[in-house]
């Protein structure tokens, strides 16, 4: 039996706590693997009471979660109260959010949990509390750096059965994108995507489609130099390394059904270029997956939804999809690493 998934509660004033409660209630109908929430159990009790959700919350260790899961929502207490009211974020929540994340990462890295699933956090709240990372993605990579070594490059993928996309640059101002898109970045991103699609998603020879940066992929240099000077050499290098890569392709015609049938992952040059089509096609089924880490991490594709937090309108589908995908990927990951461990 695989260990449970570790699930953070995210921003206390957002919909994170309530979609965790709703996912637990859907556990049998959705066929969910056991998970252990990591956070403040009182926050979950308060939110359940406010929403009239009948969810017994039990504080326990993550090792006890599996056997308790059928009858109660197991919570590994993080020891820091989270008091913000729904819809009213304030930076006093930052210590609880970060402690929950840190403990959940520890549980996964220690093998007590099989994968990490994170509920949405509010970047602006953490930035005000001096959180030095753009988001979970970069924070998690930093946690994986061995002493004295560079962090692994984390790659963000938004996955659904309809479309998988990767933004090569993530949470950076648009004005900085042309400077940040380099051959090295694209080649490393392509290699990580190809490896994780093979080892974790089970696609033997993944097909990668690179979008151009400029309109019409630069129109042979007339509408911008980056596509010929950066994207094309990166694609050529990946092809030389045996990876099925194509591009630069015009982004505006990359997402209709016939185009989507020609690739497994579309790699875009910036966040909104690929997250807009991904969330438009599959907002409630989309899952945010971090590739390039030594463990599996998934998350719903949406954010904290402060406008509906505490109203009972939150839809837990994306979190449910994230929990299912985490179990699928961590099972594949364990199988791919079994020969490594046997030889060790
Ligand atoms: N993985 C993470 O931690 C993520 C965090 N965020 C953070 O969330 C905060 C708010 O971001 P926004 O751009 O407003 O996006 P958002 O996804 O929170 O909300 C956009 C719209 O979608 C609706 N919505 C979102 N999730 C929903 C759900 N499960 N059920 C029903 N309706 C839902 C909201 O009510 C809102 O109208 C920001 O601080 C952002 O940084 C955003 C995306 C991912
Ligand atoms: N737009 C995706 C997003 O904001 C999630 O970021 P992260 O917290 O998973 O790095």
What is the strand and helix layout of this fold?
Blueprint: E1 5-8, H1 16-25, E2 35-39, H2 41-51, E3 57-59, H3 62-68, E4 73-77, H4 94-109, E5 116-117, H5 123-128, H6 136-143, E6 155-159, E7 164-167, H7 177-180, H8 183-199, E8 207-211, H9 226-240, E9 244-249, H10 257-260, E10 265-268, H11 271-282, E11 287-291, E12 297-300, H12 317-343
Parallel strand pairs: 1-2, 1-5, 2-4, 3-4, 5-12, 7-10, 8-9, 8-10
Antiparallel strand pairs: 6-7, 6-11, 11-12
Helix pairs in contact: 8-9
Bound molecules: 1,4-dihydronicotinamide adenine dinucleotide and ligand LD2JLWAY.
Pathway: Cofactor biosynthesis; pyridoxine 5'-phosphate biosynthesis; pyridoxine 5'-phosphate from D-erythrose 4-phosphate: step 4/5
Catalytic activity: 4-(phosphooxy)-L-threonine + NAD(+) = 3-amino-2-oxopropyl phosphate + CO2 + NADH
Protein name: 4-hydroxythreonine-4-phosphate dehydrogenase
